[in-house]
Amino acid sequence: MTKNIAYLLAFLLASTTLIAQQNITVEDIYTGTFSTGGLQSLKSLNNGTEYLVLNYNADRSQSVDKYSYDTGKKVATLVSSSDINLPIRNYILSEDEEQMLIISQRIPIFRRSANSMVHIYDLKTKKITALSENLVRSPSFSPDGTKVGYVFENNLYFKDLTTGATTQVTSDGVENKLINGVTDWVYEEEFSLVQAYQFSPDGNYIAFISFDETDVPEFSMDVYGKGLYQQPYVFKYPKAGEKNSIVALNLYNVTTQQRQVVDLNREEEFYIARINYAPNGKLAAQVLNRHQNVLDFYYVDSTGNASIAFTEKDDAYVDVTDDLTFLADGSFLWTSEKDNWRHIYLYNEDGVQQRQLTSGNWDVTSYYGYDPKSKRIYYQSTEDGSINRGIYSISIKGKGKKKLSSRTGSNSASFSSNFTYFINTYSSATTPPVYTLHEAKNGSQVREIQDNNDLLEKLKDYKLSPKEFSTIKVNGNELNMYTIKPLDFDPSKEYPVLMFQYSGPGSQQVANSWYGANDYWHSMLANDGYIIACIDPRGTGYKGADFKKVTQKELGKYEVEDQIQAARQLGNLDYIDANRIGIWGWSYGGFMSSNCILKGNDVFAAAIAVAPVTNWRYYDTIYTERYMTTPQENPSGYDDNSPINYVDRLKGNYLLIHGSADDNVHVQNTMQMIEALVQANKQFDWAIYPDKNHGIYGGNTRIHLYNKMTHFIKENL
């Protein structure tokens, strides 16, 4: 009797808690109710014991302030906007830390690029000088601090800080025709490269990439704004199989003011994905063939002579990264997937591999750098399991590995310049971000900088369903999965399921990290009576290169097969209504959800596709051909896996959403999909958000978008 009373009291208490809690709303999510506290972006100073932060102050001024790693207390203010009568939107510090580029205005161009108003600030004399009277792109100091380079109207310039004179390095730049020193759209998007010039260590040479866009087809989209007439926006965008920019590597001699085109001795089309100067003055260039399965690592001397130091090949593709560190003797550290997992390797000055420094059935997921004093390398990896991230160090000899993080979940590190300290950002599916300072030599914690316990307190008033991690065996593979169930889940009932995924090459959605906006939305839906399931199929990352690259030449085949089969297996569970399974995704995930409701029309009752690729022929060269080669070479790979070719199979409820100003996945994808559905006489729902890009945000846009998706799910699933 006593035990039964105890159970009854526990039940009543749980029920009271549920009644007292309110469900999350879309408005809660997108008005910042659940935002987490974070650290301002910091830059470590050369002494390794102090760092800089750009602060936005209560009086609406901005200041670049110096802090102590050890205490976290402000030591000094380097510059304040009130002192220079300019806003400080961002800053760039010279290597000797005596000068600063202050960006007072920034007008975005694409995802990573911008036009900026820039001033040079002398930290000793407090003198401030305009870099140019114009808005410029990609300003940077030379390593010796005597010059500042920048790009204006597709031409490369530099300013001599000793004489104040400005030199125009190139004069052939023309909009939508020829670019010098910054990249074209496709390089910026797919190689994450914007600044395409580098000063030599002594400042005597400038290496830069030029892009001849003359024959690249133009893409045009209307910008509606609020005027009487819409305005066309035209830019060069090479779609799969079409012509790319013709690129060239150039050397400019600052003393003689002579420009030289480097002969890479290549006849076939190629990409120059990275250029980096070594401390000894040698220029390194990473050059890929168009298929991106052969990477040649070039050395170029000051006379322009180029030679290949080593070549990396892959049956599928070679990923380009920034994982390159030159050591004092000219040797260098490099990461590669050559043994099926991404690991760190040491090469000698001539490009000959000396040794593999890390090994095992796990990936190095971030390479943080090398400390020449301790002779140790610092990195992040999946050694705690593919859904987790840990921080480690290892000696240059590949021995004495140390684990520097202590908690299982997602750890990322920001190291001080001399690797004395690192700030660890930790989160898990149950713990919002916690920021702590650690000693790099052994990982011991110095102090806690910030937590988000106030958010946890706030969440006690809301129904927040936890993620349950597991694996599911699908088509012979153990796939990572999480589910989110209602807090009052009853296994004797049947629930509809909404599957969420992205599924793109090398991606990951099933991760032991804190909730993002989609997770809160999924929890809201769960507590409205849905089960959320997320599965990373074949082709996603962190389970080895073979697992990731199985989709080569068949994007959308194996991933779709896995999602459909996983849905079937979920539908066999007693507590899931097999007739009410839906799927949604954004971008690649929208491509996937579209394919799933068409090819899996006997499984999925509803699908939402946001900003989807509907035909791989409409997407860009570098991304698409990396995985598919060209449409001319692989027509069946393109056509057999593009949802636009299967619209006649639509049976369920389908919602298609796009932004009209999406420069990445063009709204053309959705318009062509709409026309195909109309001609197949298929009913569906759709929404276009005017002048919104691939992110579809701004003002109340996200609130409207997610409420629209919520209503669609509740009406159709």
Structure, briefly:
This protein has 717 residues and is of the alpha+beta class.
Keywords:
717 residues; alpha+beta; 17% helix; globular; disordered N terminus
Reconstruct the topology from this structure.
Blueprint: H1 2-20, E1 22-23, H2 26-30, E2 42-44, E3 50-56, E4 62-68, E5 74-80, H3 81-84, E6 90-93, E7 99-108, E8 114-122, E9 128-130, E10 137-141, E11 147-152, E12 155-160, E13 166-168, E14 178-180, H4 185-190, E15 197-199, E16 205-212, E17 218-223, E18 231-236, E19 246-253, E20 258-261, E21 270-277, E22 283-289, E23 294-300, E24 306-313, E25 324-326, E26 332-336, E27 343-347, E28 353-356, E29 364-371, E30 376-381, E31 390-395, E32 402-403, E33 410-415, E34 421-427, E35 434-439, E36 445-450, H5 453-459, E37 462-463, E38 467-474, E39 477-484, E40 495-500, H6 517-526, E41 531-535, H7 545-548, H8 558-571, E42 576-586, H9 588-599, E43 606-610, H10 621-628, H11 635-639, E44 653-659, H12 668-679, E45 685-689, H13 701-716
Parallel strand pairs: 1-37, 40-41, 40-42, 42-43, 43-44, 44-45
Antiparallel strand pairs: 2-3, 3-4, 4-5, 6-7, 7-8, 8-9, 10-11, 11-12, 12-13, 14-16, 15-16, 16-19, 17-18, 19-20, 21-22, 22-23, 23-24, 25-26, 26-27, 27-28, 29-30, 30-31, 31-32, 33-34, 34-35, 35-36, 38-39, 39-41
